[in-house]
Structure formats: C-alpha cells, structure tokens
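Give me structure tokens for this 229-residue protein.
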Amino acid sequence: MSVADNLQEVRCEIAEITQRFARPAESVRLLAVSKTKPVEDILAAYAAGQRLFGENYVQEAVDKHQQLSSYADIEWHFIGPIQSNKSRQIAETMAWVHTIDRDKIARRLSEQRPADMPPLNVLIQVNISDEASKSGISLDQLDDMVSLVMALPNLRLRGLMAIPAPQVSEAEQIQVYQPLKQAFQALQQQYPDVDTLSIGMSGDLAAAIASGSTMVRVGTAIFGARNYA
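Here you go.
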C-alpha cells in the first residue's frame, strides 16, 4: 500500500476511536513520525493532506527542514532527546519541541530562538511509568518545570508529552494514563495556552484517545518499517 493509503487508514482508525469515546474527530491531531524516512515519503504524505511531521534526530530534522523549506505550511515537531550542543539547531528550525525535561535545555532553546520567529511551542515530557531507560520528569517535578518554562520569553508552553510502558490491556493502559490526564487538565485550568496532550502511538491509540490525547504520534503505520543505515 502507498503512503497515502496508509495515511487514510490511520485517519479512519482515529475517527473510529474518537467516535467510540464520544470525542469530536477534529479534537485529535495526527503527527506523522517521519524519522529515518526519505523526503519523498514526506512529500507523498504531504500530497495526501498531512502537514504535521515529527523527527527524532537533530541532524536529520534540520536537513529535512532545509530540503523542504519551500513548503511553508509544514509544521515540524522535534520529538527526540536534545543534547545541549544541538539545541541551537532545533531552536532555529522547529515549530514544536515535545521533549522538554531539563532546565538547561529549556533555557537554551529560549535564548537561541531567533528574534524573527514566533515563540517555540513546547511540551514537557513526563516519565509516567518511572522507567529508567526513558527521559522525562516525574509528575511531582512538574510544577517547577512549568514555572520555569512560563518564565522563558521565547517558549510557549502548550502541554505535556509521555511515552508510557506498554500494558497488557487497554483498560490497564488507560489506568496508567490517568495521573497524566489529571495533571494536563489542571494545567489547562491555570494556563489558557495549554491545549496539547501528546500521547498515543500505534500500539495504544485507543487508550490514549480515551485518556484525552489531542495529538497522536504515528510512524510505521504510515511510512512502513524504519530505515536504518
């Protein structure tokens, strides 16, 4: 199947899940995770109406941004870990960053955001399953991180992101998401710009959408298996 066909299948799946949980179909945005995929695949998705693309690796993200600079309506999201020495490249190219979990990185992104660009939309990454192998802050550190991001002039806090440990059942996955959902709703009550909960990938779309996700990150189901050098 083509990228366009795959994309349509994913959109249909999201529509079915939102209907199942009595949510408006437009309440969940689809982020196409294009890491390791060639520009031609991104253009195929673009031709099928996709505009949000997520990248995990800094140099690849910057290269694709440059190659597709004439496509001004592409919204680039960085969804991978950021090293201090790579923060400037992200600040100068991306529209969104999903992986804020350190004071130093947040400060650098704000300082390095070009003056002629709008504030960088950011999500704070929460490690809701307390996995040592994953990035993200704990929920009890959230208030401090929120205060820091809100004080930085060139960042705009839009919400939270998480990658939970997989669970055996949908019900168990929903249970894992509940504390994050509650934290997100509390943030929304405090800050009018907070509107994004980035949770849900191919394996847990239903649980994520049931838990209030407003953005799901899907790669393989759209583009096929990852390409590695």
